[in-house]
What we know:
heterodimer, A: 322 residues, mainly alpha, 0% strand, B: 175 residues, alpha+beta, Alpha-Beta Plaits, three-stranded antiparallel beta sheet, two-stranded antiparallel sheet, 5 helices, 18% strand, EC 7.1.1.- (chain A), NADH_UbQ_OxRdtase_su1/FPO (chain A), NAD (chain A), transmembrane helix (chain A)
Amino acid sequence: MTMPVWLEIAIRVAGVFAAFLVLPLVVGQTEHKVMAHMQGRLGPMYAGRFHGWAQLIADGVKFVQKEDVTPAAADKHVFKLAPAIALVPYLVAIIVIPLGPGDLVAQPLDMGLFLVLAVVGVGIVAVLMAGWASANKYTLLGALRAAAQLLAYELPLVLAAASVAMAAGTLSLSGIVEAWRPWWLLWQLPALGVFFLAGLAEIRRPPFDAPIADSELVFGYLTEYTGLRFALFLLAEYVGIVVIAALTTVLFLGGWKGPFADADLGWLWTLLKVGAVSFVVIWVRVSFPRLRVDQLQRFCWLGLVPVALAQLVLTAAVKVAT
Amino acid sequence: MTTPEKNGFPGKGLIKGLGITLKTMVSRAGTQQYPDVEPELPARSRGVIGLMESNCTVCMLCARECPDWCIYIDSHKETVEVPGAARARQRNVLDRFDIDFSLCMYCGICIEVCPFDALFWAPDFAYAEGDIRNLLHDRGRLGEHMAGVPAPPPHDPNGEPSKEESTAAKKGGAR
């Protein structure tokens, strides 16, 4: 039995939106609780009665009720458009990330990796729009820091992804997972590290949060945002975590491949791995202080880029040898 | 950047940091959820001042020593006829003993200075009011606070002996 095309499309779109709205909330709530317990606190305990599970929903309701303020000097249209631009790239990225084997992906694409890397890079435009349009020195400083950071870290991100694409011989994300073998964990370990760290910087998560740096820049490029638009930026941050975690999973951790029942439980393995990587993202945030702007650039150009290039050479050598 | 430390490999501190946060996460948080769980306060907590009226002789020391003059005392003298005594005795009777907790700075000098042990610290702290005037606790209310006064904690075995003990020992030695 085959479904009519429109129904299939509707289901796939609904699935993407569900993932887009639910996973970031789960990650956000986990961050609340994990961060709290790592700091010897309890975190939210009252919203929803059971261990504050509804805290983010309550936050969302609060944000919706707030006044939508646009600064008088702001470039209003750009200012209002920026949150949407921040969200869309991640939404597009989720479309091509495979959840399980076979057809369990919203839109299988032969050059999925290429598309994902391209759209994730669009995020910088939203940051620049937000920072510039706010007409505020803090937002501008934050936006320029973000621009410098994202341009720098795009390179190791792409190089690390190129290594695994070269190893798999395909740009299709599903194809990469199918080609993946457990020993790649060792072979591609440097690339995994580079990709994860560059991904963290790409979504501006601590310790790479110099563009936001609340102790220096008020709240960086988000300073002037309130209410729903601010909430959208926050949502973008958490979708960013999900996307980077999912990409790390798919490219380096074998996606839906688990110890058993890959065909039936593939989606579960993927989600578990995404959850584990997201946990590491939160863990790193709690443990490490923010990098200074110069340290940030040093780390990228003198640390990640050489490692990524060396990994490329290694990948090519192994590929030629076998 | 990761700089090599004195003994160890580069990045050792980063790994140590991850270990510390992980250890904290899996150990129990010490938080007490206050409105649901009453805090366990030590016996010497300065929450509210209780008045044991029967011990008060209206000597006025507390009111005079109070740095911000938040203790109000009124009294009158009563003549007590003791049968068989040569003349009638006079006795101070307390009419009013108020402490204004909107002024009180919880220094505890009144309690220190009271020669007759009529004032005590109690750990109760939940007496916020909507109207500042209600923070003036009269002697009835101050007497109620006595219910919360805990038994004094046992003497620290390694601490200096109490004043009473040392003076007693001195007097015993002098004799």
